[in-house]
Design goal:
The protein is an alpha/beta fold. It is built from ten helices and eleven strands. Strand 4, helix 4 and strand 5 form a beta-alpha-beta unit. Helix 1 crosses helix 10 and helix 8 packs across helix 9.
């Protein structure tokens, strides 16, 4: 059986192709929302955040022969845990790295290395900010905004746990946009104009994450787009679904 760490559109494509090739596939997702998206014909799903030891237990219990890590590019802790669990268990580890998009050179696009840096720069640059960086780092933005009287609009996946977390941080329901992406240029533009935002914060999420559509919307509306750079990937990472599938099948048939 092949374990796919996922919850992204990339992981769904990889799992689907593996099943089409006749492989038994178990997909691990962090949230119920991700589990619902991952479920499909011939695909078994396990839900919940796993640390290194829990991954080792799961792989041993399910007879996992290879792990394909197609988690989000910014889920670096998940990737570190998966790589370490595989090394300690003697199981091949395949890292799929979502292809990067070149960040355009524009006076409206700035890059930062951290969420804290993004929150500080966004609050410096505008009064109403759209944070399209997910729910995990929301506290970084609410803390920065609270001290400076800024309004943060959070665009997140429609996961009940994520929404509950935002409300617990004191985010008003009217400042939560819970939708499944990726989004078109038109949708990003409409959101910016609806909230009269002056800044949008995003991640360097690649084409499958709708990165260029955010860039074009920023250019159309004149807002500042702050981009949190991606963490580095291992040199041996593959960058196409086909490569990930072929390498996983080579390992499992060895």
């Amino acid at each position: 059986m092949i374990l796919v760490i996922g919850g992204t559109s990339d992981s769904r494509a990889i799992a689907g192709e593996l099943v089409n090739k006749g492989a038994a596939v178990l997909v691990s997702t962090a949230t119920g929302h991700g589990a619902g998206l991952a479920a499909g014909s011939g695909i078994e799903v396990v839900q919940g955040r796993l640390d290194r030891e829990q991954m080792k237990v799961l792989m041993a219990a399910r007879g996992i022969k290879v792990l394909v890590d197609s988690s989000h590019p910014y889920a670096d802790l998940v990737s570190r845990n998966a790589a370490a669990a595989c090394k300690e268990s003697g199981i091949p580890y395949v890292r799929y790295s979502r292809p990067r998009e070149e960040i355009p050179r524009s006076p409206l696009v700035e890059t930062v290395d951290s969420y804290a840096g993004a929150a500080a720069r966004a609050c410096e640059a505008g009064n109403t900010i759209i944070a399209a960086t997910g729910g995990k780092t929301a506290g970084v933005f609410t803390e920065e905004a609270a001290g400076r009287g800024k309004r943060i609009i959070f665009r997140v996946i429609p996961d009940p746990g994520t929404i509950k977390k935002l409300i617990g941080l004191g985010v008003a329901p009217g400042d939560i946009v819970a939708m499944q992406g990726p989004f078109s240029e038109e949708m990003n533009t409409a959101l910016i104009r609806h909230y009269r935002a002056e800044v949008m914060v995003t991640k360097e999420s690649g084409s499958s994450g709708g990165f260029l559509e955010k860039v074009r919307a920023a250019e159309k509306t004149g807002v500042l787009l702050i981009v949190v750079r991606r963490p580095p990937e291992p040199e041996e990472a593959v960058c196409t679904v086909d490569q990930a599938v072929r390498l996983a099948l080579v390992y499992i048939n060895d």
